[in-house]
Every structure is written in C-alpha cells, then in structure tokens.
Amino acid sequence: MMRYLIPLFAFMVLAVFLMIGLTLNPRQVPSPLIDKPAPKFQLNQLHDSDKVMSSDDNLGKVWMLNVWASWCVACRDEHPLLVQLANAGIVPIYGLNYKDDRNTALQWLKRYGDPYQISIVDSDGKVGINYGVYGVPETYVIDKKGIIRHKQIGPVTVDSLEKTILPLIKELQDQV
Amino acid sequence: MTFLTHCKSTKVSFVFLLLLLIPLIGWSKEAIPVAEDPEIEKRMLELTMDLRCLVCQNETISDSRAEFSNDIRREIREQIKANKTDDEIVQFLVDRYGDFILYNPPVKPTTILLWFGPVVLFLISIGSLIFYLRRRRVQIEEVLLSQAQREKAEALLKEDNKGKNV
To answer: Which of A118, A157, B64, B163 is the most exposed place for a label (fewest CB within 10 A)?
Structure first.
C-alpha cells in the first residue's frame, strides 16, 4: 500500500506547486520601492518646457504617477480609463512622459485626451530608472508623505482600479 | 607620332592610377567600439553578465539589445565614470528593480529554499537509496534455498544441459 501512496503523495505535492506556478505572472516583478519614499525629481513640463515640476510639489496629497509614452501601445489601451478617472476628480494624475518626442507626445495627448494635471518630460529615462520602470505603462500611487504605496505594472484596468487602486486611494486620503 | 605615344602613356598611367586605388577597398573600417574607454566597457560587461534584463527576462543585460538594457548599460557606464564600486552599482540597481535583476540571488529567508532545496533533495534521495539497498540486501539473504529446492534446481539445470547437448 505504502509503495503506491508515497509516489502519489509526491506527485500531488508537485502538482500543487506547479498549479500555484501557473497562477503567477512572471512579468509582475515586485517593486522594492513599495513603502519607500518616491524618488525625487525635478523635470521640465511637457506643455510648458520652461516650467519645472518637482516631486515635492505634491507633498500633502495622494496622487498617481502614470508613466506613458506615445510609442507605447498598451498606454493607448489604458488611456480612456485614465481620462475617465481624471474626469471623476477622485485623484490627481501626473504623467511621466518617458523617453518620448515632445511634439509626438503633445499630438498624442490632443488625440486621445489629456488626463494629467501636469506631464513631465523624462527624455533620457533617468527618472524612470530611479522609479524602477522597465515596461511602460506603469502607474504609482504615492501618499501624502511622498511614499510609494502601490505600483501597477502594465495598463491600469477596470478590475485593478476597483479592487486595488481606488480602495487604496480612499484609505490613503483618509489618513492625516 | 608624338601624339600617339603621349596618348598611350596617359592611358597606361590612368590604368596605373586605377590599380593604386585597389588597396583602398581594404580600408573598410572596423566596427567602432561603443564606448570610448575599453576599461569601463570591460567592467560594464562583467557586471551586466550577472544582471537580468527585466524586459526579456531570460537574457542577461550584456546579451540583450532591448531599450531597457541599453539604458542600464548607459547608467552603469556613467556610474563607473563617477568612480562607483561594483557593489555600489549593483546595490543601486537592486534598490530600484529588486533581487530579480540579479542572476545570483542573495541568501535570504525567502531564498533559502532556492539555495538549499536541491541539497536537501539530494540528501533525501541518497538517504532513501541507502535505505532501499539495505532493505533489499536483507530480503535477498532471507530467501535462501532449502535443501530440497536446491536439489530440484540442480536437477532442472542438468535436464536443461542435456537438452542442449542433443
């Protein structure tokens, strides 16, 4: 009896591990920046290149930093949702225009709508590296103290908004 | 006559000139190295051989031609120029991208299974092999033939030999 049960048991353990493996997404690399202060930046604005925006400007409010580019196809997928979210006025969204061409980026916003309070230009991707960006789009939720609380890798979806991002934002906004 | 010889000599010298051009074909340039400093490039390559490209995931940054890897290579070059040590540069990247960027993950509570799991599995299999072999030896010794069985077996063997001889 035992000689049949042991291999069966071993097989079941293996099967459970493999099944857990199937549900994991290898693209979702957990960011070490969660619960750490958002890297500081001082970047020129997209619409008005003379103006500079600093990450400290947003201290005291909960905000979202969305990394986007006109060359990024998945950004187009999530864009209508961001526009909708911006119109709802729940949370201010700031855009990090990542390794893009200014004119194309501006045209892109004209065409698909501009959900951003301000878009800032990271033309050489340096700030992107500080934020651990490796696939655009990526979205960060940053709290009142300037701490990164959530990172969405890949496009924001209705599901991720409803289940994770919006409840988190509400919770963070209620904090003093 | 003088005109003709003159003409001929210009022709000859023209051909000669053309021949002189042949070695120029061999002048096609070698690929220009990307970085100006081979020392920096060497260190950068050594570092990136142990770093994972997060976009392609199963490639090292030194192998990968992805935008991401280009950026990381540029970042590493700049940091080397700024006299950062290798450890500082790797730590800089781990702080931003996590341990996943390392092909050689550090020994931590979360990676203990990864590091020592194979050793444990090996010991378990060696242990069970020894256990199995011992038990088998005991079983073999237990099944000794009785006198009657032995005689019967010998008789059978003899019969078999006879059959062969015929």
So the answer is: B163
